[in-house]
Specification:
CATH topology: Rossmann fold
CATH architecture: 3-Layer(aba) Sandwich
CATH class: Alpha Beta
Length: about 160
């Protein structure tokens, strides 16, 4: 499964999503992130992920252009402006939009800003859990079909 996360700067939301999905999806998912107007990875995004034991400090911000024409099973935009500017990815089986606030725009004390980053991280984790459940359901459906082609329309968990 190939997943691409897109946001404007590829500095916060999409970087955190990439790190989370890489960790939670393991070898089942190939994940990348990019931005329509890339900026350096935000240090508070790195801090928020480090709090849960994930190191995204080596991830680099990337432009969406190198990914054009590459096949993805899922293309997921994480902000409204990226949704509007998102190029077409031929062959992308599914396109989702998860409208999340930009934590880089948070103001206040260091702790108040980190609370915003943590909130976005938790929203991403919940969405990614749902995405992984969908991916797993698809895999189980394919396995059921391989085991018994007459059950191609049976849903996972349904008696074969």
């Amino acid at each position: 499964m190939r997943v691409l996360f897109l946001c404007t700067g590829n500095s916060c939301r999409s970087q955190m999503a990439e790190g989370l999905l890489r960790w939670l999806g393991g070898s089942v998912v190939e994940v990348a992130s990019a931005g329509t107007d890339p900026r350096p990875v935000h240090p508070d995004a790195v801090r928020a992920m480090r709090e849960i034991g994930l190191d995204i400090s080596r991830q680099k911000s990337k432009s969406v252009e190198p990914f054009l024409g590459r096949p993805f099973d899922y293309v997921i935009t994480l902000c409204d402006s990226a949704r509007e500017a998102c190029p077409v990815f031929p062959g992308a089986a599914k396109r989702y939009h998860w409208s999340l606030p930009d934590p880089a725009a948070a103001s206040g004390s260091d702790e108040q800003r980190m609370q915003v980053f943590r909130g976005v991280r938790e929203q991403l984790a919940a969405q990614i859990d749902d995405l992984l459940a969908e991916i797993l359901e698809g895999f189980l459906g394919k396995l059921a079909e391989l085991a018994d082609p007459s059950q191609a329309d049976a849903s996972p968990g349904e008696a074969l």
